Amino acid sequence: MSDFDVLIIGGGAAGLMCALTAGQRGKRVVVIEHADRCGKKILMSGGGRCNFTNTGVTPAQYLSANPHFCKSALARYTPNDFIEMVERHGIAYHEKELGQLFCDESSKQIVRMLLDECEWAGVRIETGCSVESVGQDDAGFNVRTARGMLKAPSLVVACGGLSIPRMGATGFGYQLARQFGHDVLPTRAGLVPLTLSGTHLERLEDLSGLSLPIEARCGKQSFSNAMLITHRGLSGPAILQISSYWREGDALTINLLPGDDIPPLLSQWQTDRRDAQLQTLLGEVLPKRFAQRLTEHWLPNRPMRQFNSPELDHIARTLAAWPIIASGTEGYRTAEVTLGGVDTDGLSSSTMMSKHVPGLYFIGEVVDVTGWLGGYNFQWAWASGRAAGMAA
């Protein structure tokens, strides 16, 4: 049996940040990671360049049953705090768009930075080590692993959600939460491609690979970015973002010309391009193949002079709110995050510690806090990991 001060289950972004923080405070820390190496989701993120934070982080970019819960941790560990560590390690980075920061070279640099910080802080990391059971007695937590029993007064659960099971994702963190009396809110795939079926899919599937800028809207939420048509449905940043707000049966509309005031544009075409076909003109502002498909199935195709005012209104409404009937999502297989998770009502927002079990902490994706696409989920990992690491 080995004794530690802090035992962390999960060597991902949140777990490593918690470990290095606690280690720097002089705590004896061990990280248990069941995969063969730490930070697998970090390595694959951002196309291998890791979108490690976002300069525009506010609580408004997070979904949770309690939207106030994330405020404390995010305020006490900001994107600038993480950027300072990145710069201290000499990692070159750039802003891609919308405040998203990426490594110039490789996401491996972020993992290396975290592991180096852990090493300097004396953290012990056990990879390829599965947890068989977790118990508790008066002295703390007893964790039986494939390599023997570990014991610590503080236990941090940082083993993520259900997204991307091929990376080793499991529901173990939720299992532990329930074991210790915590509620787990229903989970579902977030930041995930949407699937189409029937007529909608038949009309679009042969356009697979085509991308265009759009504004996706579901209820009161909207996102402007690219949409990608796939052989199974729709993807791209705008669709991934709206997927976290969409539920089966919800209405979903797409503004196909988000940068244009559409009615005046149509009026201008009718005045200046009277003999041009609608499809031809749409092909100048949309991908030609997509414009052709629109006028085959959703819009009439005639010379502009032949449209009356009600018909122009119909065209404008369709372009501004093209209706999509999504049949579902691609699920956890391709989802970037898991929505739902450990109910924040049972946790301290300042320390991430359980209100039911002293010394037990939950951080990162396992908690019911989910960010937008664009570095927000990593910032939650850093902030929640830091909060627990300062308290454990």
UniProtKB/TrEMBL annotation:
Domain spans labelled RsdA/BaiN/AoA(So)-like Rossmann fold-like = 5-390
Show the Pfam families listed in the entry. HI0933_like, HI0933_like_1st
Output the InterPro entries linked to this UniProt entry.
Answer: BaiN-like (IPR004792), BaiN-like_dom_sf (IPR023166), FAD/NAD-bd_sf (IPR036188), RsdA/BaiN/AoA(So)-like_dom (IPR055178), RsdA/BaiN/AoA(So)_Rossmann (IPR057661)
Q: Signal peptide: which range, if any?
A: none
Q: Where is the RsdA/BaiN/AoA(So)-like insert domain?
A: 188-337
Give the residue spans that cross the bilayer.
Answer: none
Spell out the NCBIfam families in the cross-references. Answer: aminoacetone oxidase family FAD-binding enzyme
Question: What is this protein's record name?
Answer: Flavoprotein, HI0933 family
